[in-house]
Amino acid sequence: MCGIVGYMGPRAACPILIKGLKRLEYRGYDSVGLALNESIGFHLFKTKGKVADFESKITHTYTTGTGIAHTRWATHGLPNDTNAHPHLSESGELVLIHNGIIENFLSIKSMLLRKGVSFQSETDTEVLINLIEYIKNQDDLSLEEAVRLSLNEVVGAYAIVVMERGRPDKMIAARLGSPLTIGIGDGEFFLASDASPFIEYTKNALYLEDGEMGVIIKGKEVEIRKITNNDRVVPSIQELRMNLEEIEKGGYEHFMLKEIYEQPRSILDTMRGRLLVDESIIWMAGIWDYKERFIKAKRITIVGCGTSWHAALIGEYLLEELAQIPVEVEYSSEFRYRNPIIYKDDIVIAVSQSGETADTLSAVKLAKEKGAFIFGICNVAGSSIARITDAGAYTHAGPEIGVASTKAFTAQVTVLSLIALKIGKHKGVLNVPRYRLLCNMLNLIPDKMKEILEMSQKIELIAREYKEAKNFLYLGRGLNFPVALEGALKLKEISYIHAEGYPAAEMKHGPIALIDENMPVVVIAPKRGYYEKIVSNIQEIKARKARIIAIVNQGDEQVNNLSDHIIEIPDIDEMFTPLIATIPLQLLAYYIAIMRGENVDQPRNLAKSVTVE
Ligand code: M6R
């Protein structure tokens, strides 16, 4: 995925674009570029590297009020200066930024090569801008018509913005499968992959829908048209709820640390207005409106990727235990390609922080085609998945900027807990005293999280001992098996240490062969839930001389005696231990990565959401 940003208005575009790129850098950070459009022509700058390095290369103060910019996560071609966006057409008359993949770019490129067009880069994007130019010149078309006709030739996903040399009063934007938002200010327009680049300038946003293009002309209203047939669409302008503080570091060294520390507050936001603890009521309109469906559901399938898939695995335990509904959890990427059997009364829950993950979006579309009822659990309001689902519940974790997901994960688990409790109660499979007890306990989670965050110094000391490790094993049972997976994912994605998560009992079927004094093993061993079994697993590890870091309940003597380090977490019902046990694992990964000198907010090769296959 990449970040795209554009501006047209009375202010100087360059600083707005650079600031916008910084906010979108979480979407990709291997190369960066911008094009300013003046009546005399384009000023084009692009380079491999990050926005901060790029910024220092623009030494002149440009006052022009029209420009586009891009921060890239490479798909086609290496991250280098030539492949960086924006891309000019061969004649230099048109310029384009693009987020997505043009799947049939090779056949289009061959056609254009036969017509004598030459290319500088290896990108699909340069092919697209040359296709637009070729079609435009063939019939002397307007830019918008040439863009529209070209996009009808294209297979793939895109969010694009195009400009024409010497026309600073005009921009064409279009989307299919990749997000694009138009911010509408007083006499000015902003374009961006999400609303963060323009939040301080305007609260009015227009989210382009798939298959729509926007014709943006200075002094006029944005004109929205269907790419297929050029039909006019009435624009729907929405008011943004995001605020500036939410997307800034607020005194923390990294977004990831800020987001870890935000969890007591973000979980409160997730539960706000939903968990009415005094009355023991869980209010969720998305479930209530379809309660019969949920109560009668014979099966729920949950799809997601990465961390969201881990949250889905916890959801499986919660829904089966509390609501007695059989649940299957699938990687979105596997689900979408294996012709899954879906019955009309099936429910498919899609879990996605960004709401833009290509595989999850495609899985949802497939399930929808097959007639399933789709429920979305997304963090980003107005995102593609949130809009395509039949019903849903936002996680309300606030913007998550660090590439490693932290607060979004615990918010997803909280939403799944609320859903499981609500359905279990209405279905009559969860007895009232237990339901009440669990509501009360869920309400205590933010305070319990605070207790763990206060122990961060101890976790930092543990991290210091293990920062040179080459491998890590994470073990947990039951609901804490997905927590082990998530702990391992956090460590590997930001510290680049190889880490595996395993169900603790499964260890003896293979991974035990890896265990020796050089293998640190993190074991999640709370009192509630398979405690004696996990103590046996710890003994097996100890016998092989591995160093053990155990996550235990306060006052646990038994595991303490067997472990090299313990991190104590407050006691809570087994159903909610994942919400608590995850926090020390996030901190451990964070500190280890920092001590190794890694960029935790922008780990190598990753992007915040993967909007390509
Ligand atoms: O936006 P999504 O929740 O759909 O993203 C899914 C994964 O790409 C994401 O969770 C990824 O695994 C993160 N880097 C995890 O920290």
N-to-C span: 10 Å
Tally of individual helices:
20
Query: Which small compounds were modeled alongside the protein?
Result: 5-amino-5-deoxy-1-O-phosphono-D-mannitol
User: What is the name of the CATH topology of the largest domain?
Assistant: Glutamine Phosphoribosylpyrophosphate, subunit 1, domain 1
Give the overall silhouette.
Answer: globular
Give the strand order, joined by hyphens, for the main sheet: 3-2-4-1-10-9-11-15
Q: How many domains?
A: 3
- Please tell me the CATH architecture of the largest domain by its name: 4-Layer Sandwich
For the biggest sheet, the summary is: 8 strands, antiparallel
Given helix and strand content, the structural type is alpha/beta
What's the count of strands? 27
The mean pLDDT is 94
Structure description:
The structure is a single chain. Strand 2 and strand 3 (about 40-50) form a beta hairpin. Helix 3 packs across helix 4 (about 125-140), helix 4 crosses helix 5 and helix 7 runs parallel beside helix 14 (about 405-425). The mean pLDDT is about 95. With about 625 residues, this protein is α/β, with parallel strands linked by helices. It folds into three domains: about 5-245, 4-Layer Sandwich (Glutamine Phosphoribosylpyrophosphate, subunit 1, domain 1); about 250-450, Rossmann fold (3-Layer(aba) Sandwich); about 455-605, Glucose-6-phosphate isomerase like protein, domain 1 (Rossmann fold, 3-Layer(aba) Sandwich), CATH 3.40.50. It is built from 20 helices and 27 strands. The chain has an eight-stranded antiparallel sheet, covered by helices on one side. Strands 5-6-7-8-12-13-14 form a seven-stranded antiparallel sheet. The protein has a five-stranded parallel sheet with strand order 19-18-20-21-22, sandwiched between helices.
